[in-house]
Design goal:
It contains six helices and three strands, in the order ααβααββαα. By secondary structure, the chain is mostly helical. The chain has one domain: Orthogonal Bundle (Arc Repressor Mutant, subunit A). Strand 2 and strand 3 form a beta hairpin.
Length: about 140
Amino acid sequence: MSAAEPGGLGATPCQESGIRKSLRPVDSSTASHDGSDVEDPIAPLEGRWVLRILACLNTGEQRFADLRSAIPRVSANILTDRLRALECVGIVERRYLAPPQASHVYALTEIGAGLRPVLGALASWRATQPDIPILSRRTGES
């Protein structure tokens, strides 16, 4: 049993990063039919930068530096936090590449790949809307 497995000696990355309870995967065996214990399946997709991260990963696996380049306004700490949260709920996976690359890459899991039609539709919609301004975070102007 490894340290990252439940019952192991160490904390999992999800526990170490303090991921919110709302970002846990839904356990259908404990969910009630009245909706009181059912967690919102959209909750893992909420939050700033999550859709941009998923859109980048929709094109294929990416290194951390590639994601930083593709989303230049996100800080390294926030990007790390969002990737860990998505990893904890099973939407994103992190894999280690052997030398000479010797780095980690992020990719959509099988569950995350289920979002591809939605992400593709959003990308297509945005491509047909050239007049929508992209607002600056700091000034609120385009």
